[in-house]
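FIELD: query
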Amino acid sequence: HSMKSFVVYLAIALVIWRLEGRRVGAGAVVLAILLAVSVGISRIYLGAHWLSDVIGGYLAGALWLLLLVAASALVSRLLRSGRSDATAGDGEVRPVPSRPAR
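FIELD: result
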């Protein structure tokens, strides 16, 4: 629960940050962290997990989220570089062949 809440809430906050800007995004990140910490505290309080389990979940979630953000940045970079497919190596712009009609 701790790991899932950390990843989901922070991923949503990062999307909000990207779409809405720094001010709204920072508030979303703070809210996401508070929600994730609340879930962790509730797991400890209910006796479902030890503190070490919750901290481990947060660390695993942070690693997973880091991998997702890195993969997203890589895909975004590849898509941006793919837009220049119509440009030849010599700088000349060539038409992109169209797909045949079916």
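FIELD: remark
The helical segments are 2-20, 22-45, 51-82.
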